[in-house]
């Protein structure tokens, strides 16, 4: 298959370029020493997954000390710094990270005894750790979340100068930095707790799946299922990115991982670069809302709400289906519009061959879900899923995981987790300042005041806040920030709790594909060689459902599968039918290229169909069905006229 070999070479080249541009590459003795430390970090977290972690603050402190060490090993301070040697500044930062961690471990009893009365070292070390975390985040994630964190620090210090409802007593440096450093409400609060207990483990799990050949299996399965149909390569991209994206915990990371294969394949078949980039960005972003893992946000949400994980997964299931269904229809209509066909059958893997050689890759995922349903903790469930993945790899000679492969999987898992953990540490600063200043309650009061106490008026405000606060932040970190600031405003105005939290997760995730700062679209555009804004616009169109469905969570919970059976019986089919209408409206094609005035009618009618109301459904069905019927009749008349003329 010459085409597949060409794509593989392109993928290898893109991955190599991405790694050279982002992380250091070591060789010789340095490689083995640093890799051994990374593997030891992964093994320690796997140990705590099975036997349980130590006291929360100490565990999170040790977790950050380990990850900070790896960040300053792998990420250079500037673009011009050496990619093969550690800079002297990095040794200094690593040393300070270890000192700050050991200070808490060795003095915890004394620190707990003097709570609220910090000594000089508590203040000094608090300042230093904040600086270190900001620098680690600058190297890994970028400035977006750092700017937000600095704004919250300024807000905490200058509280008395703030206007109106935002004013507070103001806090001194002696109060702010020990609070962030030495309590479980600051840096070592929920975000790093989630990172230590869930996120790192799931990224390691994803690394084991990839190393065992699961990535190739899911890629081939996606191509075998969809490749020969209209728009097949793009549809395969959606499936592939959804499979992998649910585990990565970052839309942008998933674009870089899967887009190096899918984007060249789509371009090869005739898709324009901007559209190919938009499809990949959309699919990778959709992976973050795809059960069962949802970029680890599902487990964070369950813990935050005090609800069983199963409740979160069930509530998120149908909205995720609508998201990807709309994407599939858009791809289908776009391909018909541009006359693009699927890949030749001889260049595609055969479905039965793919299933025979790799169907067992579903087993670790099934075991993971079953254990979660049975009440096991996510960390324990992912621990056994990793063991099962290693065992199953021995079913085929090509995929067997020897000690070298296990070692590399552990190291790669830690490397991939560094960006997410750094973002979680900065999120801890934000949440610490929200807690200290009471801003969460004030933010809710502010939204309630601006909206006049009406939930419908509050939705645009919370929507915009979620998009802004979600920019440039990995999935779990953005959810935690939004759950602290934005979700309470919705619940205070009467929104169902589960609906409010899925609302903020969706719009926070939408930030990854919303121009002009959609980082997932930017990453995909770089791979595709497209203009970032054009790629962002295509991604926004592809993901339009994610901008509509969350609004409907608030007005009715049928889409969350939380409604009487008779209501679900008409709400779910009409919502699915609306996906067809949205796809046709956004792409301007159904059975032919539509007149411009058909598209707004079709779009409005499709949105009405998603609303769980008989009245809206009837009107929406009339609008959507009327446009579809008119399109079919006009095409038939033109075809008959053409035959008569011929």
Features:
single chain; 646 residues; mainly alpha; 30 helices; 75% helix; 0% strand; disordered N terminus
Description:
The chain is an all-alpha fold and 646 residues long. It has 30 helices and no strands. α13 (273-286) crosses α26 (532-542).
Task: Report the structural category.
Answer: mainly alpha
H/I helix tally: 30
> CA-to-CA gap between the ends?
42 Å
Biggest beta-sheet profile: none
- Total E-strand runs: 0
Report the β-strand fraction as a percent range: under 5%
What is the assembly state of the chains in this entry?
single chain
pLDDT averaged over residues: 87
The string of secondary-structure elements, in order, is HHHHHHHHHHHHHHHHHHHHHHHHHHHHHH
Question: What is the global morphology?
Answer: globular
The low-pLDDT segments are 1-20
Helix content: over 70%
Radius of gyration: 25 Å
């Amino acid at each position: 298959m010459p085409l597949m070999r060409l794509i593989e070479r392109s993928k290898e080249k893109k991955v190599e370029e991405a790694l050279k541009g982002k992380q250091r590459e070591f060789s010789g003795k340095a490689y083995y020493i640093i890799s051994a430390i990374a593997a030891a970090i992964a093994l320690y977290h796997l140990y705590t997954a099975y036997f349980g972690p130590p006291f929360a603050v100490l565990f999170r402190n040790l977790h950050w000390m380990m990850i900070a060490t790896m960040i300053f090993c792998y990420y250079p301070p500037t673009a011009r710094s050496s990619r093969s040697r550690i800079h002297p500044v990095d040794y200094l930062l690593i040393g300070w990270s270890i000192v700050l961690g050991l200070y808490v471990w060795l003095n915890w009893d004394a620190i707990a005894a003097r709570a609220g009365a910090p000594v000089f070292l508590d203040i000094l070390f608090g300042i230093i750790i904040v600086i270190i975390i900001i620098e680690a985040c600058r190297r890994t994630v970028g400035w977006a979340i750092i700017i937000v964190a600095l704004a919250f620090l300024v807000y905490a210090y200058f509280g008395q100068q703030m206007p109106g409802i935002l004013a507070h007593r103001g806090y001194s440096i002696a109060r702010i930095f020990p609070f962030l450093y030495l309590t479980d409400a600051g840096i070592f609060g929920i975000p790093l707790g989630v990172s230590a207990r869930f996120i790192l483990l799931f990224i390691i799990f994803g690394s084991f799946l990839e190393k065992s050949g699961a990535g190739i299996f899911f890629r081939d399965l996606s191509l075998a299922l969809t490749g020969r149909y209209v728009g097949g390569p793009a549809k395969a991209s959606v499936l592939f990115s959804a499979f992998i994206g649910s585990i990565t915990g970052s839309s942008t990371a998933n674009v870089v991982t899967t887009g190096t294969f899918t984007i060249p394949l789509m371009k090869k078949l005739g898709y324009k670069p901007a559209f190919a980039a938009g499809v990949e960005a959309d699919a990778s972003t959709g992976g973050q809302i795809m059960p069962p893992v949802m970029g680890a946000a599902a487990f964070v949400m369950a813990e935050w709400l005090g609800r069983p994980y199963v409740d979160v997964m069930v509530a998120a299931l149908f909205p995720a289906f609508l998201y990807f269904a709309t994407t599939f229809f858009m791809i289908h209509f776009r391909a018909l519009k541009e006359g693009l066909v699927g890949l030749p059958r001889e260049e595609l893997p055969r479905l039965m061959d793919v299933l025979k050689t790799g169907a067992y890759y579903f087993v670790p995922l099934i075991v993971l879900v079953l254990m979660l349903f049975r009440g096991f903790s996510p960390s324990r469930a992912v621990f056994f899923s990793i063991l099962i993945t290693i065992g199953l790899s021995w079913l085929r000679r090509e995929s067997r995981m020897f000690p070298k492969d296990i070692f590399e999987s552990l190291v790669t898992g830690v490397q991939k987790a560094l960006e997410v953990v750094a973002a979680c540490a900065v999120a801890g600063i934000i949440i610490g300042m929200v807690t200290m200043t009471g801003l969460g309650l004030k933010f809710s009061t502010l939204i309630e005041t601006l909206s006049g106490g009406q939930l419908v008026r509050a939705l645009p405000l919370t929507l915009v806040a979620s998009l802004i606060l979600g920019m440039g932040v990995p999935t779990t970190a953005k959810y935690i920030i939004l759950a602290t600031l934005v979700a309470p405003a919705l619940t205070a105005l009467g929104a169902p709790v589960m609906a409010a939290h899925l609302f903020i997760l969706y719009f926070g995730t939408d930030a990854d594909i919303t121009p002009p700062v959609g980082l997932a679209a930017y990453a995909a555009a770089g791979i595709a060689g497209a203009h970032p804004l054009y790629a962002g616009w295509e991604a926004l169109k592809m993901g339009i459902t994610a901008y509509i469905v969350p609004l409907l969570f608030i007005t009715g919970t049928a889409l969350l599968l939380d409604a009487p059976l008779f209501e679900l019986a008409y709400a779910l089919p009409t919502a699915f039918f609306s996906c067809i209408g949205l796809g046709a409206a956004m792409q301007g094609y159904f059975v032919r290229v539509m007149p411009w005035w058909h598209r707004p009618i079709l779009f409005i009618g499709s949105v009405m169909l998603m609303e769980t109301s008989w009245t809206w459904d009837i009107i929406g069905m009339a609008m959507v069905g009327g446009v579809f019927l008119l399109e079919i009749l006009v095409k038939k008349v033109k075809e008959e006229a053409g035959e008569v003329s011929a």
